[in-house]
Amino acid sequence: MTPAPLVQHFDLIAQAPGGVARLRELILKLAVQGKLVPQDPNDEPASELLKKIRAEKDRLIAEGKIKRDKPLAVIADEEKPFELPESWSWVRLADIVNVLNGRAYGKQELLEEGTPVLRVGNLFTSNNWYYSSLNLEPEKYCEAGDLLYAWSASFGPFIWAGPKVIYHYHIWKLEPHSKSHFDVGYFHTYLQEKTAEIKAAGHGVSMVHMTKEKMEKIVVPYPPLAEQSRIVTRVEELMQLCDALEASGQLEAQQHAQLVNTLLGTLTQSETPEALADNWQRIATHFDMLLDRPSSLDALEQTILQLAVRGLLVPQDPTDEPASVLLQKICTEKDHLIAQGKIKRDKPLPSITDEEKPFELPQGWEWVRLNDLIRIGSGDGLTAAQMAPNGTIPVYGGNGVNGHHDHANVEEPTVVIGRVGYYCGSVHITPGRAWVTDNAFITRYPKSYLEMEWLYWLLVGTNLKENDSATAQPVISGRKLYPIVVALPPLAEQLRIVTRVNELRSLCAGLRQRLAALQSGQKQLSQALIENASS
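Request: output the structure for the sequence above.
Response:
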C-alpha cells in the first residue's frame, strides 16, 4: 500500500518548489523500504530465494562459467539503514549479480562500422556512436533487458533497450546469478534510489573513484520475488503520475507566461499615461493570479522599465524645459570639452531615421543617440595578487562587485557597464569611490543635464547585450553602443521617472518577500507530508 498522505496530497506536494522531484525521490525511497505495496504472507520469503540463488551460483562456479569470488563480509548492523519487512533480507549486491567490467578502447579501435560500442554518453545525451570489429567474449556484450550501471562522471542505472552492443569500460553489466529469481525492474529501482542518495549527499563526484569491489559490497534490501514485481508495477504507476504532474505544470507555466506577456503587453502598448492608467486598472484585478511566481515579477519589473523609457510612467508637465533645449546645452558642453582637449571629437553618426523610432514620443521629449549623451572608457586591470583582502574600496568588473582594493580610479557614484563575457551589457552604479577593472566601462556624462539614476534605468531598460559582438566571448564597444537610439525626456521628468521607478520596484521587492515566504511555507508543508509518508 502506498502511504495515504502520499497519494492524497500528491498535488499539494507537487505545487511546492521542486515538489515533483522530491515526490520521485520519495517513491523510490518507499519502494526499497517495503512501504509502497503490502506484503503477502503467501509469498516465498527472500531468505529461501537467496538459498536458491546461492545454489545456482555454486553450480556456475563448478562449471567454470563464473569465477569463485572472495567471501564477502557479514553485513553489520550499522550497514542496515532501516528496518526491513519480515519477509525481506539484507544482501550484498555480489550475492545476487556478477558485476562485469566493460572494455576500454583506444582511438584506433573505434571505427565507423561494425558492432556498436555503447559509451556512457550514449546512455545519457549523445547520439554519436562508434563501432568495433573485435570479436570478444560473450560477457563483453549486452542485449535488450540487461541491467547496466554507468560509473563515470555521469552515473546511474539503466535497463538496456537497444540492440546487441559492446559496452565500454565505464559501464558495468550486472548479470544475475539466477535470472528466474531476479526482477531487473526492482534492482533498477533500488539503484536509482541509491544513486539519488549519493547525489543528495553531495558525493556524486565520488562515483569517478567507484571500484568494482566497492560496488559488489553494496547492501541491498531484497524482497520476495512476487513483491519485487508488485513494487515495479506500483513505481511505474506513480512515476507516470509524476510525469503527468510535471507535464501539466510545464503546460500551466507556459500558459501562465503567455497570459503575463499578453496582459503586461497591453501596458507597453499604451499611447499615453492616461491610457496606461486605464489598462493598468483592467489588469490590476488579476495581479494575485499573475504575480504568483518570480518569473512574473521579473516580467513586471522589465515592463516598468519599458514604460519608464517610453515616457508612460509619469505624466508630462508642459512647464518643463523641453529635451530639445536640454540637448542643445549638452552639445554646447561637449564642444567645450573637445575644445579643452578633455575628450576627442567623435565621428559624425547618421541622422535618426523614422525606422529607428520604435514609438511615438511624449511631448517635450527628443530622440537621440547614446553618443549624444555619454562617453565610455575602459577601467584598469587588476591581477588577483593586486586584490587587497582587507581593502575597503569595492572593485567593479563586468558582474558588479567582485573584490576589494586599497585604491580607487573613480571618486564618486559612477555608472559602470559590463564590457566582456557573460555579464557583458550589465549595468551598475558604484556607491562612491571604487575601482573599475578593464572588464567594464566607466561612463561619463554631463551631470548638470542628466540624472544619473535615470541614465542607469535607461541603460538597464535598453538591454545593451543585444548589441554585443555575437562572438564566442561577448564583447561590447563604443562602436556598438554609441549609435543606439534612445528617448531623452526633460531633466525634471527624469527626476520624476526615477522616483516612480524606485517606488514601484520597492513594491515589487515587497511582493518578492511575500512570495518567498509563501513558497517557503509550501515547501515546509510538502516536506512534512513527505516525512509523514515515509515514517
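The chain is about 40% helix and 15% strand.
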